[in-house]
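User: quick one, fold this
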Amino acid sequence: MRDKITAAMKAAMLGKEADRLATLRLINAAIKDRDIALRGEGKPEGVDDDAILGILAKMVKQRQDSAQQYEAAERMDLACRERFEIKVIGEFMPKQLSDEEVKAAVQKAVTSVGAESIRDMGRVMGVLKSNYAGQMDFGKAGGTLKQLLG
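Assistant:
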């Protein structure tokens, strides 16, 4: 994953794509920040690919929230910038599941855990997060899960 991001940074530098390069540098900085934090916890190997997917998913979520706020404030220039960054970050994430696929995954997780009520929601979400990191919006999955168990 790191190699793919580094290669994309080099290509952006050679292609003189300043906006893309800036976003790739933000991704790299977020990963390095996490590496440093893990070293402080006694884990010198740093983050693995699953953790990088989590970082990328968090970055996308932050930018989606920002873009919505910018649009509400009628700052379309800033909203467009956030959407561009989402697109660049998304290039390194696995394909997002469709609504039908999310619903099927939630149902599968419910059966595997044996969930019967809303109290089991945490266990089901834990299974979903371990199996589908970076592939689904867990906010939407939570809503689907509530409908199923509620």
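User: anything notable?
Assistant: Residues 53 and 103 are 21 Å apart (CA to CA).
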